[in-house]
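Example 5.3 — Lipocalin-like domain-containing protein
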Amino acid sequence: MRKLIALAFTAIIVCFTACSGNDDSPNSAQNTDTSQLLGKWVIYKGIYGEGTQPILYESNGECGRQILEFNGNGEVTETLYSDNDCNIGVAGTYFWWILDDGNIAFGAPNSYHHIITISNGELILDASEEADYIKYYHRPNN
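Solution (predicted structure tokens):
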């Protein structure tokens, strides 16, 4: 009987510790500076498929073909414009968060994510592992 109780107790402990954190769920931004991330970013280049030529996108002032707007609450609004008159074709909401390794993730927590890096005023959205593309953004009117 003691062995059965000990086995049940061990199973409960294993269940609770196996279901604890350390997954891709959002974490608070502890030591990662995200101040450069916040605000609007306009796509200007995309590479779709390894070894393919980049596609260059034109920008029309405040709108381009695609805008990502990162908010301080972890939400990202993606807006796709249908023409140069800034008419919205499609809009959606995604999320950004900090991974355990300090990288910035973009996507849907516990589902998929792409890695974001920011360097010299350029945001790079690397989806090469999940979707085989890399997109490049700059601030509006750059």
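Remark. The beta strands are 39-48, 55-56, 66-70, 75-81, 88-98, 104-108, 112-119, 122-126, 133-138.
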